[in-house]
Amino acid sequence: MTSQDNMSEEHLPAAQEAHGGAVAVVGDSFADPGLPPHEHRRTDIDERAAARAERQVAFWFLLSMVATIGFIASYVLFKPGPQLSNVVYIFPIGHVSKLNFSLGMCLGVSLLGIGVGAVHWARTLMSDEEHIAERHPIEATPEVREQVFADFRQGAKESGFGRRKLIRTTMIGAMAMVPLSAVVLFRDLGPLPEKKLDSTDWAKGKLLVNMNTTEPIKASDITVGSLTFAMPEGVKESDEDFQEVIAKAAVMLVRMQPDDIKDKKSASWGYEGVLVYSKICTHVGCPISLYEQQTHHVLCPCHQSTFDLSDGGRVIFGPAGHPLPQLRVSVNGDGYLEALGDFSQPVGPGFWERS
């Protein structure tokens, strides 16, 4: 026996006396101490305390509902922008947008209310009893599965969800209103289109200008089998809204023999075989640029939608669902091509914005 063993034996009586019991040594076995005695919460034994906790939980859910309403109201009360009327000074952050600050605070309080309410509910009113679950194989037996469902039903019963109507009602109301914040966020994507998609920059008397040379186009300049891209006169690349205007007003001019035009209405909207169609594909809005002069077909390079320009821009292949809108044209006294109005229908891929 070593000196260390002797020292341990010498100190055993003192350790036993200090701890009031036997001291474990190597080789001893430990009995399972089990769980400590269950201590009931105040809300478990006092119904008034439980009712008070229920009101507190309901308060947090109601606060969430109010904050959601405030989130939505912020869009009406505050406007975005750097103007002094639209900002507020907050120490130590500095000047921030009233809109952004109110949106962030309201959304944060809304989510916080649901979270705090749920946690307070679980800690004060749901079942607080401890249960021992023995370890079991990964693959559950039918008995275990049945026990799981039974435990779930028991947990639902013990949570008081069905019995405590005030909590249930306010929690459902808070959770139902929170998604409204996400719906309102879509309003921040930009202004509503209103009637802007129903019309373009084309109007009666506007000349067709070559997109490459920016010069007005004469009907005599368009040869049979050619494809020319044009835009309305007065549109300049230096304009701030150039991309917005050209995205709807870009057109392509083709000329074919009058006998090759199948659709008589299209022929009447052209001039001596010169037809003008929107350059914007009616599938997803890609610019059309591929023309086959023998068949008079144009192909969208994005998804291969094919249109027959000799038949009113009809779709003959691909995912596009609508024909290309046609622009009615004529010539002025100098022989230049001019529009007689806007397109026959809204341009672009969408169906919902069509009148």
From TrEMBL:
Q: Which Gene3D superfamilies match?
A: Rieske [2Fe-2S] iron-sulphur domain (2.102.10.10)
Q: Which InterPro entries match?
A: QcrA_N (IPR045603), Rieske_2Fe-2S (IPR017941), Rieske_2Fe-2S_sf (IPR036922), Rieske_Fe-S_prot (IPR014349), Rieske_Fe-S_prot_C (IPR005805)
**Localization, UniProt:** Cell membrane
Q: Which UniProt keywords apply?
A: 2Fe-2S, Cell membrane, Disulfide bond, Electron transport, Iron, Iron-sulfur, Membrane, Metal-binding, Oxidoreductase, Respiratory chain, Transmembrane, Transmembrane helix, Transport
| Protein's UniProt keywords contain Iron | yes
Is the keyword Iron in the record?
yes
- Cofactors: [2Fe-2S] cluster
Segments traversing the membrane? 57-78, 101-122, 166-186
Question: How does the record classify its membrane topology?
Answer: Multi-pass membrane protein
Entry's PANTHER family? Answer: CYTOCHROME B-C1 COMPLEX SUBUNIT RIESKE, MITOCHONDRIAL (PTHR10134)
Q: What is this protein called?
A: Cytochrome bc1 complex Rieske iron-sulfur subunit
